[in-house]
Each structure stands twice: as structure tokens, then as C-alpha cells.
Amino acid sequence: MKSTAKKTSASGTPAKAPAKKTSASSAPAKATARKPTPATPTPAKKSAPAKKAAPAAVTPAKPTPAKATPSKAALAKAAPAKAASAKATPTKITPAKPPRNESHTALVRRARRINRELGEVYPYAHPELDFENPFQLVVATVLSAQTTDLRVNQTTPALFGKYPTPEDLAAANPEEVEEILRPTGFFRAKTKSVIGLSKALRDDFGGEVPGRLEDLVKLPGVGRKTAFVVLGNAFGRPGITVDTHFQRLVRRWQWTDQTEPDKIEAAIGGLFPKSEWTMLSHHVIFHGRRICHARKPACGACPIAPLCPAYGEGETDPEKAQKLLKYEKGGFPGQRLNPPQSYLDAGGIPAPPLGAPAPGAVVPGASAPGAPAPASAGPAPGSPAREAG
To answer: pTM, whole model, 2 decimals?
Structure first.
């Protein structure tokens, strides 16, 4: 009896199996029956408009990125494309905060990486004083104290036009030189310095600017900073120019905590090969003048923001930061009347001569920062023509 029951259950199993097959086979039959049914076109019609409605639903979302595009495009002018995403979303930037016990090797790597990034942002970096020979450069550098390179460049054409050589300037009437140098400020002290150094060049160096640091610092009004500017840019000899911008930025980046120029020079010189000193100075000074300002750095438009331990000290909003940019980064003229061709190729604008209006200067009542100034208007307060250093 047990075996019979097993057989019966066994036989029952196949009986159920065919039943499943029958249901499976009935499914296609139902499907076949549905095909001629007129109800099938109705879902087809519903699906068709649904597909058309899909792009329509996406259409309203397109204006949102379109509104954000101008700010990203504006930021692209101030920095390389690879930094645009970081600037567009400053809240996502994780600033580099070096550990308190950062090793010297780690500091060297971090400093050199920042310099490489700056080299990509400012491949056209150069001395921003107009000069044609070492004599013009040393005089212009002495005159640049407590004023802008732009003001010096607007003043020296008249000076060198009347006194082209050290011998000519050494024999000049001080009152006439003072009148020429008046726009640079502290014109009496500067007149004394440039006439004094011209006499020293005439009497001690045969009318030629010496190419050694120890000789240059003996000239009236010439210190180490001026000497390194001349050595690096007129003689091609490496030197670090520790001006106010350089001092500010290297401390912001925590490259050094020194405050005296000679100690800063020694500390930074130990982080870089000597061959990079001159261009390093240009990169840092360019960045300090254009983006990393003293009072309100444009952090939201800074291409090295992800590497900066001081990120957030300035304006982080990309659109607001864009309005803080100076010179070619903000669409304004530069500081040189006769800049290098590489600067012009990069979109730089030459500075206007003395008394001429600055192209693109902000004027009172202008609708937006960077609006073109009327032909009769001069540089307005806050324009690059009046920006210190």
C-alpha cells in the first residue's frame, strides 16, 4: 500500500506538470488573442506622448546651468580650466592645512607644487617696470618705492628722454628732476637717490651698472631687493625679490614665519633651486597683485585655492571674488606701457601713458565693475591705476 501511494503521488506530480505547461502554453495563446484586440493601440498611443513628454520635462531644468555658465566662464579667464571646478564650488574646496610638525621635505614638495601651479597661471610673468637697459632698470626700481610700477612707467619716459645715460643724470639740475619725478611721490628723496647713484656709476664704475650684488648695494638708494631685481632681470643672475607681496604670500602659505626680508630670502631660497629664484619671485608677486590681495584676497577665484592653507581669509563666492581681480585677470590694463609680447598674447592690456584714461577703468555711476570708462574720464579710485604695488 505504501508503494502504491508513492506511485500515486509520483504519478500525480507529472499530472501537475502538464497543467503548468498548459498554463504556459495558454499564455502565448492569450497574447496572440490580444494582438488583434483594438485595446493594444491605446497603450501604444499613451507611451508615445510619454516619450515626447520626457524631453519637455527636462527642458525647464536647462536654464539653471545656463545661469551658472557666466560665472564659470568669467572664472575661466582668471585661472586655468582645471581650477574652474574648484572655483565654481568653493564650499567643496578642502584647503591644505599642513601639520604643525611638517617636515622640511614635505614643505619643499608643497612649496614647489604651488610654484608649478602659479607657473601655469602666469606663464607670461615678468618684471613690471619698463626698461631697455640695466641703468633704466636700477633707476626705475629705486623710483618704485612707495608707489606703483604703473606710475613709475608713466614717469620714466620723460626722465630717460632727457637724461638717457648715468653721465647725463649725474649732471642734471635737481629741481628739474624733482619736477619730472613729482608724480611718483617722495620726489625730493628719490631725486637725491637717482642723481647720487648716477654719480656713483659715472665715478666708480665707468658709467656701467655693476653685475655683482656687493657692488650694487653700494649705490645710493639700492638695497638687496633692488639689487636682486636688477641682477635677475638685467643680468640673468638668480635672485629672490622680497617685496611686500612676496612677504605676505609666503607667510600665508606657511612657507616661513620669518618677518625680516633677509631672513625670508634665506628661508625661501632653501626651498627652491637657485635657477628658479627669479621666476618664483615673478609668480608670487603677480599672484599677490592680481588675486591674493592684502586686505581682501579673491579666494573664490584663486586657481591654487585647494593648495592654500589660508583659504577662506578672503571672499569665497566665485562671482563676488571675480569682481576683486586686478589687471589682466579682471580685464584691466597692466602696469607696463611696453609689456612683453607674451603678456599681450595672453590677453594683457598695455597701461596708458601719464594723464591718459585707463581703458576699462571703473568710473562713478558705472553699471558694473569693469565697465568701459568714457574717453574723457581718468582712472577712478579703486582702479588698477591707483592700486598700490
So the answer is: 0.70
